[in-house]
Every structure is written in structure tokens, then in C-alpha cells.
Amino acid sequence: MTARVGVVTFPGSLDDADAARAVILAGGQPVPLWHGERNLHGVDAVILPGGFSYGDYLRCGAIARFAPVMAALVPAVAAGLPVLGICNGFQILCEAHLLPGALTRNRGLHFVCRDVRLRVENSSTPWTSGYCGGQEITVPLKSGEGAYVTDPATLAELEARGQVVARYADFPAPNGSQANVAGICDESGRVVGLMPHPEHAVEALTGPGRDGLGFFASVISALAVA
Amino acid sequence: MTAGPLTSAQDTVARAVATPEHRQPYAELGLTGAEYGRIREVLGRRPTDAELAIYGGMWSEHCSYKSSRVHLRQFAEKAPPSAALLAGIGQQAGVVDIGQGYAVTFKIESHNHPSYVEPHQGAATGVGGIVRDILAMGARPVAVMDALRFGPADAPDTRRVLPGVVAGISFYGNCLGLPNIGGELAFDPCYAGNPLVNALCVGVMRHGDLKQAAATGLGNQVVLFGSRTGPDGIGGASVLASASFGIQKNAEDSGESAKRPSVQVGDPFMEKLLVECCLELYAGGLVAAIQDLGAAGISCATTELAAAGAGGMRVSLDTVPVRDASLGPPAILMSESQERMMAVVEPRHVEDFLAVCAKWGVQATVIGEVTGTGRLQMTWHGELIVDMPPGSAADDGPVYHRPLARAASQDELAGDDPSALPWPASGAELRADLLRLLASPGLADKSWVTEQYDRYVRGNTVLAMPEDAGLLRIDEQTGLGVALAIDGNGRYCRLDPYAGTQLALAEAYRNVAATGARPLAVTNCLNFGSPEDPGVMWQFAEAVRGLADGCAVLGVPVTGGNVSFYNQTGGTAIHPTPVVGVLGVHDDVRRRVSIGFAADGAGVVLLGRTSLELGGSAWAHVTHGHLGGRPPRADLEAERALAAVLVAAASDGLLAAAHDLSEGGLAIALAESCLRGGLGCRVTLPGDPFTWLFSESAARAVVAVRPGSDETFATLAAEHGVPAHVLGAVGGDSLVVDGCFGIPLAELATAHTGTLPALFG
To answer: Has residue B254 got a pLDDT over 90?
Structure first.
């Protein structure tokens, strides 16, 4: 069975087509999910793609968390559905309290589009199992509000439990992220939020390389085993 | 919210007939007495306030091309035969067949004046406007580019304008989900009070998807959709509207006018919804005709749609959704509120049309229908306020043969030859000049700007800044793609607008070919001072003639363009600055060629003829603040041959890198290629080092030939009659010019990358 990976389109989602392409290149079947439907169509995993949901005019992700599709997603997550939030998707996961902390304005206050080196810190989540722990990969970062922030106690817990999934390898982080955090997961490891864009590093022709494909291949093989 | 009822202040056709002597503020709307007289003649009475607003917008320089039209005809008259052109000048944007059933549409537009007044919104809405132009052709917009020109980089006002413009483009383009794949950034004192913000958009469609902008089909419904109409940008196309013209904050107040900004405010989220909504409407076959709302807003959309159709159109203007209930008919007609489109829809499709709009959260309102009267009629709560032949506003505007005269200063300028300037003689001096140029704001690394733009979204960007051209994949299976470059050079054009414009065309053409793409078509944005100045008008006429002649030689037609006049501060005009965009087709983007020297041992070969040509050069500008002499010779036959070599060599896989030579000559090209690819090179120059390093002779490129392909490549170049000088090889970690100097890559990088961050933070 080919893994069916849902890709949610909110009004203002931009990288939904890119995420779907990445799923195909990793051997899965992308399933478009619509923000206004309280229905996940039986998918095996979900990606919340990058973009500016609802224009992000209030606070990034603050409106998207109330979308009908999120009402279906939250209980599915509790039941074990793997979810990857990329960029705006990460912001939405934080707003929905599926992940702790928040993404704030970049240090320097400019939007930054740059290829960055990441260190995969946790390779035991369903989204990162195809990487080796400590592996360095290059993927694009492109965001204006990508600086991860949380309180010291939560950060200490994240570190202690191995919930920091990926870190910017170069110091300081291009957006001023706390502890250079680029991505985190929930306690189960199934919900992952990542600020950089692995879906833009799946073909050597159009990205800095193919280092990002591992996120999509990981979940597809994890689903095949499960 | 809809507009309020008719008040005594509002003007109807009946009242216009009854009060022929009523004084009207035509001058405040930018119309001359003669133009106003002609309107009265066309209508057989005085216009209503609403009609005057329509004519004021449509007969503005911006919408009517009244000063430029007589010159622009050359683009069609001299156009080379091209089987690729599916729609040309006169459409909202030209459409080019790129094969495999795909068509591409592209266009540049200026948003210069708004960007000076309010840099962020001015630049943002410039992007929004050109994207809707492309969308209205039936295409999916797939990328944007921008050509930016500012005053001196260290001038205080540039620090206000540039960061705002860049942030505006970043805000709008990124939120809209369009990759920004290239452009230009230049600085010159002539742009200090008049920055140039030119935005290009490219879109893709299947052949059958081309949409018309003509209101046809009796009984078809006219639907306005997108944002509500507000009081922003009123009179942007003409001049600031008169406060006595019914544009009042509150109809009841004592006549105190609302001094609203004439710059529009952009909502890229709404534009993204509008894009997806339109594409779904097109796919469903629900649109009979469509037009975007840009300059002159509803005035332009209704008159142009009606004029292009055979019948007429009737619009209930009071049904237009507004953001401010006090807006009267003239304000609604003139408003340039963003993110609006107008469609003509068959009655049987209206329900489905509105349903698609509702799905995307886009407000849509039926405001009128196609009639058989041949007239554009508008009512306001049942009373007739507009009754005019639509073509009189859309097509038959005034046409001026403005006086033109070559200014005497042209000769003085031409006589001031830069070869009299002191040259760098020693290797150390040459080295210092190279580093100085490489660090100068116009040639420095542009990452400070380009990192604020998303170049990855949609996943089809094969090449983007700082490559010679942007390259997009169109078909994932076949590798079909398009390359785009935009170039201009105000200094060359100041010295000789005819040659300068051809050099801009040649550079964009060369840049496209350097990636391995075949140049196919041309668009342009002509930025000039006041057309009422005969010297400026001469520059304009020469530029247009140069471009038309150049396109004929290169075999690439002009598909459309934009004219921006009145770019001047007081009596001082900007340099004539035509910006030329060239689109090419790439048969297989997997064979794209980058500018970067990354293949160790590849042979460095200089293509083309080099002679001492320093007029308008970056060297004269940066090291001596000098502008004079003659620009480099534009040899378009040589350009054509060079492009043929570059395209064939890319196709045959002979090249590891290719980089066009332009500003800063070979010196800058070599430095950029080393920095981009991460490898140095060692070269030996065939003659006088200064000439070979810094001359800006056109029709040249430097290439890195794959090891083992040298002979094949040499034969190819010889077959096309293109001189090929083997200079050396790629390798090492320095740029070494034998007998002159060596510069470590790290030193080049420091010089190149430090400038813009130091200036703009």
C-alpha cells in the first residue's frame, strides 16, 4: 500500500504543491485536504505546508488553528497520526498547542531566504528516521517570523527529552532562534514542526540538493512498517 | 456596504444636458482645455462628473499613451516575423508559444512615483498590478522579477526608499507565493528624487486558455470581484483629484476633503485568493472575458471591455461594493483599490461563478450586463450618470506628436571621452580598481536584497539571482523551461539613447542565451522624464527606434510594454532608462548553464571582440565619477552569433559555466564567476590589461569549457564567426591575472559582500 499523505491547503498556503511533489518523489501519494472540511479522508499522515494562511495578518497561524480541518486533525493526532508542520505549518502547530513555544520576528526584522545547514538532532521521529543522529543537511530557510522562542523551563524539557529535532548548524541562527532551534517535536515524536523547508530540497535541479527528501521518505517507510 | 443615495451634489446626464455652462474641474484631472472640448464634442454636451472622471483617467498619459503612441507603432511595424507570437501589443500582455502546447505571457510595469511617495506600498502594489495583468490573460503567474534604481547608495533618502521598496516587494511577492527570480539594482544621482521600480511578471498557460478582454454576448453579466472599492489611489493615473470634485470624506460635512493617500494599499492575501479563484473559474469554463483593474480602476475596465466588444455595457454603479459609503460615482470610477477583477459571464454560469468565488472567500457582485446599444451606460440608483461611446475613452484618446529636439548637451557629452582619464597602470592599480568596482553599490553582491525574496516557492526555480537570467522549469517531465532577463543602462542611454537601448536589449538577450535558452520575445518598460521637454522626447523617440530596429535584427518581436514619463525632479530628468526584458525558451532545463566556476580544470574562454570602449562604463563611473564619450558599439549581428554559440554549446553539454560581460567588463565577470562557483581561475590577457579587464565592449561572454571539449567548442565558435580567446583555466582559490595580480577568493568575497549590509543594515 502506498502511504497516503494529506497536504492541507489553507487560504494563503503557498508551498502545498511543493509538499505534494516531495511526497511523490519520496514514493508516497499526496492527498489534498481543504481547510474548510472537517475531514482528513483517511490519510496516514498530514503535512501543514508553508505560506501565509489567512494572510497571517493577525499572528502567524493564529487563525488557521481554528479552521475546520484542524478540528479533525487534533483528535487524529491524539490517536497517533504523524503530522509535519513546515514554516507556517510549524506556526500553526504552535498556535494549536500541539507544540510548545512560538515563532517570532527574525532577528534583523527582515524576511530571510537562504540555504542553511541543519543538524538533525533526533532521528527517531517518524519524520526523521531516515537520517542519522547528528547528520548535517542543507535546506532552504525562508521566513520572516522564524525565531523560535519558549520559556527556559520548556526549553530545558525539550532538550532533556530529545524534542529538539533539528538545529541550525551555524551559530548564530540566521533568524536568532533560541538555542538555534530549527525544529521540535511533541513528546510522542509524531508531531514535528520545522521552520526550514525540506520540500524545497528534493531535487538537485531546483534546490540546494536532495537533503530534504529524508523527511518525506522517513514517514513513508515508518508508515510501511507500522 | 454599498454607496449612498444620489445627493444634490451628484451629476446626471439629464443635469449635464440642462446645465451646459456648469464649470468643471477638467484641469485638476489633468485634461487640457482642448481635450475637454473634444469630450464635449464626442458627447454632444458637457460630460457628467462621472464621465469626466472616466475621460480624465483614460486620457491620462499613463492609460492613453498619448505622447508615446506615435513612436510605439514602430514595434509592430518593424516587428520581425515570428511564429511564436499568439497575442501581441494591445493585449494586456503579449503571449508567446513556447512549444509542447504551452504559452507564456510576460510584461513589465513601472510603479515609480508611488514608490517614492510611499516606498513599501508603492512597490508592493506594483507587484500586485503586474500579476493581475498576467492573470487576466488566462495564465497562472509563476514568477516575478524587478528592476530597481535609486539615488546614491549613501544618500539619506536612499536609506528611506530602498529598504521600503525591497520590503514592499518582499511582503507582497512572498505572501503571494511567486518566486522572485532576478532583476537589477542600480544607483545613480539622477534617480535621487525619482527612483525606478519596475516589476515583471511571467505566467504560463496552455494554448487554449488564452482569455479575451471583450464584453461580448448580449445579456452576459458583468461581475466585479475581489476587494471592495475604497478611496485609495484615486486619481493615481491622472493627477490628484480635486477636493471640489465630490471626493469628500462625508457627503454631509462642510466640504472638508479627506486627504487620503494617492498610493494604493496592497493585500497580497486577497491577491493570492484572486489568483486561485480565477484559475478555478477558467478551468470551469465560467469566464467569457476578463480584465484586471489597475490604473483608472473601473473606468478602465468598463470602457476597455465595452470598447473591445461589439455591443455596449450597462452598469449599476451603486451596486459596487465599497469600503466607504460616502464614495460618489467619480471616486468609485477613479479608485485604484487593488486586488479587483472584472469578468463577463454568461447568465447560465453566474451561479457557478459566484459559488467558486465564495469557495475562495472572494466577494463577487453582478454590477451590469452586456447590451446592444454600443454605448457604455452607468446608472446611480436608477439615474443615468454615464452615457458614452466606450471607444472614445479607451481607444480614441488624444494622440500627440510632441516636439522633439536633440539637446545641444549631447555633443558636449559625446566629446568628453573617458579614455583621457588616468588609467591604472601597474598590476597593483589594476587590482585596486577591480576590488573597488566589485565593492561599488551597483556591482556589489545583492544578497541583502535578494535574500528578502522567496526564490523557491512552486519548486520550479532552476536559476535565480545572481545568475545571468532567471530560469524556470515549465514541464517536469520534458524539462521545457523559460529564461528571463531584464536589463537597462541609464548611463549608456544618456550618452546615446538609440545605441543605449540596443545595448539594454543586447544584454538581456545575451543573459538569456548564457543559460542555454533561445531568446524568443521582448517586453519593455520605458522610463523617461517629461514628454513636454523636447530633449526628453528626442531621447524617447531614439530609444524606441533603437529598440524596434534592434528587435528586427535579433529576430525577436516586442510583445508589449509600458511607458513611464514625468520621471524628473523639477526641471531635471532622470537618465533615459528603457528597461528591456527578454524571454527565452529552454528545451531542457537540466542542461542549464550557471555563471559559477565550479569545474576544476575547465578552460576559460572569452567570446567576442574587445576594443577600448569606456564611455558610460562602470570603471569611469566608479573610479572617476565620469560620464561622457560614446557608449560601446551595439553590434547586434555579433550578439546573434554569440547567442547561437552559447545555446548550441549548452545544448551539446560543452559548457561548465557561462557569464555575459556587461558592467565592469571581464574583470567583474571573472570575479563573479569565481565567487559564484567557489573556484578561482588563472588567466593570461591577450593585450593591454586595462582594456581587456575593464572595457565594456558588447557581444561578449566568458565561458568555462568542460575539459576535453576545447576543440569542439573552438570549432563551434569559428563556425559562427565568434572570436574565442583561450584565457586560461578554472582552479585554485584565487583570481590570478598573469603578470598583473592575484586576488584570493576570500578577499574578493569580502569586497563584494560587505557593501550593501554596511549601507542598509
So the answer is: no
